[in-house]
């Protein structure tokens, strides 16, 4: 139990720290950061429940006013923007990434983590972010896909690959540290 709490807190801190890396702000106003890779890593390494709890704790801390989002943003106001679907989708993204890791038995852990990051960290995240943007903006599906997804896909795919590489290397060095793979033979 104590280890779980520490790991959840550690990954919440990692997600926050990844928001400190230099950001690139698009014309639409949304920044491209490394933070989404934190949710991918949380799910891939911690598993579904712990990864989702790390992401949820991050979202709660942002809602409480801590300036943890890129550019030092935080507070309830960020949840009123058309981009808030990303914030609501972070826990789901970590959960689905972790679930894929837990359920996909055997195989190359790095490759599985990369695929899990694509399915959860990209697919599940946009499954929340795109409809939220459509409702909050309001916008059509075409505009939403063009504004919410298209500019971020190349970077998100790179983050998924990096997630796979990090998870695979960590598994090779210390298999027991990949909690999503506990009890799974490779």
TrEMBL record:
Q: What is its main location?
A: membrane
Q: Cite the GO molecular-function annotations of the record.
A: biotin transmembrane transporter activity
Pfam families per the UniProt record, alphabetical: BioY
Record's Gene3D superfamilies?
1.10.1760.20
* TM region(s), chain numbering: 51-69, 76-99, 111-134, 146-171
- What topology does it adopt in the membrane? Multi-pass membrane protein
Q: Where is the signal peptide?
A: none
Q: Name one GO cellular component term.
A: plasma membrane
Q: Where in the cell is it found?
A: Cell membrane
Arranged from A to Z, the UniProt key words for this protein are:
Cell membrane, Membrane, Transmembrane, Transmembrane helix, Transport
Q: PANTHER family attached here?
A: BIOTIN TRANSPORTER BIOY, BIOTIN TRANSPORTER BIOY-RELATED
Q: Which family does it belong to?
A: Belongs to the BioY family.
In Swiss-Prot or TrEMBL terms, this protein is called Biotin transporter
Q: Which gene encodes it?
A: bioY
